[in-house]
Amino acid sequence: MRGAATLRKAPLMNMITNHMPTEELRALDSAHHMHPFTHNNDLTKKGARVITRARGVTLTDSDGNDYLDAMAGLWCVNIGYGRTEPADASARQMHELPFYNTFFQTTHVPAIALSTKLAELAPRDLNHVFFASSGSEANDTNIRLVRTYWAQKGHPDKNIIISRKNAYHGSSVGSGSLGGMTFMHEQGGLPIPNIHHIDQPDWWNEGGDMSPEEFGLERAQQLEKAIQDLGENRVAAFIAEPIQGAGGVIIPPSTYWPEIQRICDAYDILLIADEVICGFGRTGKWFGSETLNIRPDIMTIAKGLSSGYAPIGGSIISDEIAAVIDNCEFAHGYTYSGHPVSCAVALENLRILQEEGIVDRVASTTGPLMAETWHSLADHPLVGETNIVGMMGSMVMTPDKESRAKFASESGAVGLICRENCFKNGLVMRHVGDRMIISPPLVITPKEIKTLGDRARLALDLTYKHLKSEGMLKAA
Ligand code: PXG
């Protein structure tokens, strides 16, 4: 039972504030709030951490504990917490025009301004923006968009989208199908038809005896093989994150993306770069596609677009695709496509990122410092490999660096222990399996980078001790 005893009805609502005791907040949360990607009965037993405020890179919980948030919320708070400008922009916009739609021959200034700004920031001929409220919605748009594009060009059967195992593209029916997470496909009848998944470029786990470069090529060539098997006239697009985020910050070998780009060009396959995590400075450039030298036809955006201060996402589309789509009525859209308040907040966020040189700083100073700190953890006996680009990094934990062995325990058991040791020591660092990952706010200072490194090392030390005492340092 989910705390039914404490369940009370509506009149309580106005009294629920930050000042309520944590236990009471937890009980109400468990009684009424269903959490995403959570086993809610387990959560009820443990009790949720109640986050009450945040400034810069620091979160505070309802018991007054502070945490350095090395995940920027959920990979999104690029400008850090507590900036007043987006709040002011949001209030101004709410006073002036809280909502109007962009259907039926109407538009409004925030949507005009934001799409124009995005066209300026985006590379090459990516000049057209279709708005959504999230990355999932934007990827749903992309499915319909690429299929409609080929149908308009007289190829209605060119409708298969190739993606990758262990990719994350959202959790709606469409975007969850694009994603390659089998545990998601097992619930709710996913994937939808005509989505095909190839293997991911995860050298550490899947590279075997190949060098990273050989492996990168082999994995990229799986795309060519899939196109040949399925038929060039059947494949509409390939979608991928420049660097997989939720899959474990998997940075592909250097040979991977050039080969993927060659194949997309050679077979006339549209390339969709999912920039939901990589976009807006995370890799040290405005878009991950620039860092990895990719020429996408469509980019999915969300998260860092507003630094999470308001929900907004979208697709940035090339001149060529937009010209073809513009020849028909694209029967697609959301009530909140281009929501004026979200657009105003996103514009303010982009202004801060640009005017304060935050993206440039990731490339020139804070990124290299973060990399040095992160790589210094590689000498720890638990750490097999550290990887980082800009402000997204991962480290693999292993019982044996040489053989890249996995732990005998179930995948993720060690990761969870380490994550809990991070929390206990004031650090929010995620685990994906037995890989630890970071994606801090881009405004993290050199002093905070040092604190991050110190707390991560402490968590690794405690984890090592724990594994040793429990006899868990064994390889599978
Ligand atoms: N594409 C990518 C690459 C993402 O990382 C989405 C699309 C979907 O965006 P929305 O806004 O619909 O959530 C994402 C989201 C995790 C985690 O556990 C990652 C995401 C969302 C929730 C959890 O790392 N990424």
Q: Care to give the gist of this entry?
A:
The protein is an alpha/beta fold and 476 residues long. Helices cover 40% and strands 15% of the residues.
3D structure, described in words:
The protein is an alpha/beta fold. The protein folds into two domains: 49-82 and 358-469, Aspartate Aminotransferase, domain 1 (Alpha-Beta Complex); 84-355, Type I PLP-dependent aspartate aminotransferase-like (Major domain) (Aspartate Aminotransferase, domain 2, 3-Layer(aba) Sandwich). The protein is built from 17 helices and 15 strands. The protein has helices at 22-32, 40-46, 72-75, 84-96, 109-121, 135-152, 173-178, 182-185, 203-206, 212-230, 256-267, 288-291, 319-325, 340-355, 358-375, 413-424, 446-469; strands spanning 51-55, 58-61, 66-69, 126-132, 160-164, 195-198, 235-240, 270-274, 298-301, 313-318, 383-389, 392-397, 427-428, 430-432, 435-438. The strands form three sheets. Strands 4-10-9-8-7-5-6 form a seven-stranded mixed β-sheet, with helices on both faces. It has a four-stranded mixed β-sheet with strand order 1-2-3-13. Strand 8, helix 12 and strand 9 form a beta-alpha-beta unit. The longest helix has 24 residues, at 446-469. It is globular, with a radius of gyration of 23 Å. The protein starts with 21 loop residues before the first helix and ends in a 7-residue tail after the last helix. Mean pLDDT is 96; it is low at 1-6. The site of 3-[O-phosphonopyridoxyl]--amino-benzoic acid has 16 residues, from helix 6.
